[in-house]
Amino acid sequence: MPTTQNSRQPAFTLIELLVVIAIIGILIALLVPAVQKVREAAARTQCQNNLKQIGLACHNFHDGRRFLPPGYLSASPYFDGATDTSPGWGWATFILPYLEQENLYRSINLALPIEHPANAAAVQQVLPLFLCPSDQTPPSAFVVPNAFGSPLVWAGPSSYAASCGGDESETDALTGAGVFYRNSRTRMTDVTDGLSNTIFIGERAWANANGIWAGAISTGVCKRGQYNPCPGNSAAFATASALVLAHAHLNNATSDTDGGLDDFSSRHIGGSLFLFGDGSVRFVRSVSTDNPDGSFTAEGLLFQAMGTRGNNDVVNVDF
After folding, report:
1. Average pLDDT, rounded, for the chain
2. What's the CA gap between 272 and 202, in Å, rounded?
3. Which residues have C-beta within 8 Å of that of residue 24, sequence separation ≥ 6?
4. Ramachandran angles phi, psi of 311, nearest 5°
5. pLDDT in tens, 19-76
6. Which region holds residue 13: left if phi is over 0, alpha if psi is between -120 and 50, else beta?
7. pLDDT (tens digit, 9 = 90+) per residue, 266-292?
8. Please, are residues 187 and 279 in contact by the beta-carbon 8 Å criterion?
9. Does the predicted model carry a pTM greater than 0.85?
10. For position 10, what pLDDT does the model report?
11. Using an 8 Å Cβ cutoff, are 175 and 181 in contact?
12. Which sign does the torsion angle of CA 278, 214, 228, 219 carry?
């Protein structure tokens, strides 16, 4: 009598299936951080390239004019740096022709304020070169309001701000100890602390402070970003000039009375990228807070020295 073969096929037991699922879970857990690190490395490289292009544009502007672009341009007598910034066009606007944005630059009427309807199409442009890939920026223009929350203009976001100085220099002051400020016309020879020691432009994450590239909109405000880590009022804001300027007081502030809106910041881990006057781009470690008694930390004093152009500071940019 012929023997019959068992027709049942081998199958996984429940325990074997659970083991396979556990192994897959472990592999995914190991893979995700590696992918995130690769992604962040790529984003940091792109951010560095952005700043290098901005630096080259600043140098080309200087070669043609013998001075650097103003932090922002105002035709009004100085009053408070908040309501008197018109027309307001900032440093990023003036270097557009050197960033392959000649057509955009020509479409702007610099004699009219940023918020004038004739400039609306230009101001709303979202320019990737002014955005760090690690930053949480809107995909299109966003509303810049006044201090009462009334909308003034739709504007393209920016992840970068120009340095007006250290803590001694406020973004809304008449002048600054840094390279860029109201109606500034800084020459390279004015940077007596050394171009390689002086910050020109740095990261100021839109996720922390909602800056723009176009300039300082008169009566406009720079609002606190959704991911700003400083404790305080979510409705806090800084004056118009902070839309395009920052001072080298803190870097990635976690505790600051004004929410760090006029300070540099990034979404990178451990610090931010900065363009120095010699065209180099370097990563500077975070200076997240002052001492508990309100005095400056040693790292904070070094960082402030990087923000000034001519204070005879001895600077170590590798901290």
Report:
1. 91
2. 7
3. none
4. -100, 10
5. 778 878 787 777 666 556 567 788 999 999 999 999 999 999 999 999 999 999 999 9
6. beta
7. 999 999 999 999 999 999 999 999 999
8. no
9. yes
10. 62
11. yes
12. positive
Q: Length of the chain, please? A: 319
Residue 234: which pLDDT band, with cuts at 50, 70 and 90?
confident
The CA–CA distances, whole Å, from 138 to 135, 142, 154, 212, 217 equal 10, 7, 12, 11, 19
How high is the pLDDT of residue 9? 58
In the chain, domain spans = 34-307
**For the chain, the helix, strand and coil percentages under 3-state DSSP, each to the nearest 5:** 30, 20, 50
Q: Give me the mean pLDDT over the 229-248 stretch.
A: 91
Q: How many CB atoms lie within 10 A of CB 97?
A: 17
How far apart, in Å, are the Cα atoms of 160 and each of 101, 210, 244?
A: 17, 10, 8
Residue type (1 letter), 248: A
Instruction: Determine the distance from the C-alpha atom of residue 106 to the mean position of all C-alpha atoms in its chain, rounded to a whole number.
Output: 25
Q: Which residues contact 293 (CB under 8 A, 6 or more apart)?
A: none
Under DSSP, is residue 220 helix (H, G, I), strand (E, B) or coil?
Answer: strand
Q: Which position has the token pair 């995914």?
A: 28
